[in-house]
Specification:
CATH architecture of the largest domain: Up-down Bundle
Shape: globular
Helix content: 40-55%
CATH class of the largest domain: Mainly Alpha
Number of domains: 2
Distance between the termini: 36 Å
CATH superfamily of the largest domain: Dehydroquinate synthase-like - alpha domain
Number of strands: 8
Number of helices: 15
Structural class: alpha/beta
Strand content: 5-15%
Radius of gyration: 20 Å
Order of helices and strands: EHEHHEHEHHEEEEHHHHHHHHH
Bound molecules: 5,6-dihydroxy-NADP, zinc ion
Oligomer: single chain
Strand order of the largest sheet: 1-8-5-4-2-3
Largest sheet: 6 strands, parallel
């Protein structure tokens, strides 16, 4: 196992009717900015629950954060923060709202000239406003991690800082009942790929991490499709298992002490930046291609994945790997997400432009060995056609 330091201080309140607990988590003297997206929280009752919980607080609101949050939108929040002396952010929404709040929090206290440098030049964040979260879409793990992804003019860029890790997050599975099938699928697939990107590398004998990861993968495979079926769609236990899996998949636990490979995410981000394809759908297209192209380097873990997650015990290692990749694709198809670029109208002619963007963004040595060069990324895009 590799050396690591693990520290995740985000307090989680999990379960039905927990939103009211935000009242006790946010200091009573705070000036709170409630941040949300396009309005789903007004239709499903979450907004009303937040308003009730904040009855004793002084609060303001900032809405309109779009999926794949835009830099220009996020910068608009700075005016109200200055004007009202905001000193606490409450993000109410999915990963985009939480990521957006993280960038707003960092930009508000940024001492450099241009907050865009936090993303474009990876300037370190030295302070940020405190953040609390009411999560409405289980997927990204953003509610208890240090990452955020922001888009500007087709450039989709991540930053990380412990200063933007939420202080607390409320996870009420009931609020996920209003999600569309598309968003349920996206969430399950995103969490599945997060888990695999911290698992499908090479073995360092991290047994705890491996078995946690395998447990999450199996839970998502079992419960994901049930959340789409009419008979089980409203089952809160299923939603709870999905929600907790998504948080655990990217809260730092399973990735501690093991190699990681975020190539699927980085190669996928260019598809969202260029064509606006949903984040999870870029992953379901790219991941199978990464498995195929990096098969040799990932051989040992691919076999373990086949045996322990897909319970494939018969035949040669080669056959097990083939079957595991096939079953992974079939799982994505069952979740209703694409597994080929042709399904989202991206063609061979588009690949040059995508490679150019990867280069521009410094994504030239991806993967657990840093050996996914631009040439290898090209092969991956081609394999995914
Ligand atoms: O904006 P509203 O009206 O709230 O609607 C949203 C949005 O249209 C809707 N929604 C959310 N909760 C709902 C709901 N609709 C009905 N009922 C509910 N309970 O869902 C739509 C998508 O929301 P979004 O927040 O964009 O989805 P998601 O949580 O999948 O977040 C995706 C973003 O997170 C980034 C992605 O790149 C993408 O920008 N990621 C962040 C990560 C992190 N911070 O660690 C890691 C991930 O890999 C990912 O890159
Ligand atoms: Zn993701």
């Amino acid at each position: 196992m590799l050396n690591f330091s693990f520290h995740n201080p985000t307090k989680i309140h999990f379960g039905e009717n927990q939103i009211q607990l935000i009242a006790g988590e946010i200091p009573t003297h705070a000036k709170v900015l409630v941040i949300y997206g396009g309005g789903s929280i007004k239709q499903n009752g979450v907004y009303d629950q937040v308003v009730n919980a904040l009855a004793e607080h002084t609060w303001f609101e900032f809405s309109g954060i779009e999926p794949n949050p835009k830099y220009a939108t996020l910068m608009k929040a700075q005016a109200i923060i200055q004007q009202e002396g905001i000193d606490y952010l409450l993000a109410v929404g999915g990963g985009s709202v939480v990521d957006g709040a993280k960038f707003i929090a960092a930009a508000a206290l940024y001492e450099g000239e241009d907050p865009w440098d936090i993303l474009a030049k990876q300037h370190p964040v030295k302070q940020a406003l405190p953040i609390g979260v009411v999560l409405t879409l289980p997927a990204t793990g953003s509610e208890s991690n240090i990452g955020s992804v922001v888009t500007r003019d087709g450039h989709k860029l991540p930053f990380q800082s412990p200063f933007v890790r939420p202080q607390f997050a409320v996870l009420d599975p009931k609020v996920t009942l209003s999600l569309s099938e598309r968003q349920i699928s996206n969430g399950v697939v995103d969490a599945f790929v997060h888990t695999l990107e911290q698992y499908l590398t090479y073995s360092v004998n991290g047994k705890v991490q491996d078995r946690f990861a395998e447990g999450l993968l199996q839970t998502l495979i079992e419960e994901g499709p049930k959340a789409l079926q009419p008979a089980t769609k409203e089952d809160l236990d299923i939603r709870a298992n999905i929600m907790w899996s998504a948080t655990m998949a990217l809260n730092g636990l399973i990735g501690s002490g093991v190699p990681q490979d975020w190539s699927t995410h980085m190669i996928g981000h260019e598809l969202t930046g260029r064509f606006g394809i949903d984040h999870a759908r870029t992953l379901s297209i790219i991941l199978p291609a990464v498995m195929k192209v990096k098969r040799e380097q990932k051989r040992e873990k691919l076999v373990q994945f086949a045996e322990r997650v897909w319970h494939l015990s018969e035949g040669s290692d080669e056959l097990k790997i083939d079957k595991a990749i096939e079953l992974t694709e079939a799982f994505f198809q069952r979740m209703g997400v694409p597994t080929r670029l042709s399904e989202v109208d991206v063609t061979q002619e588009d690949i040059d432009g995508l490679i150019e963007k990867l280069e521009q963004h410094g994504m030239t040595q991806l993967g657990e060995h840093g050996d996914i060069t631009l040439d290898v990324s090209r092969t991956i895009y081609e394999k995914a056609l």
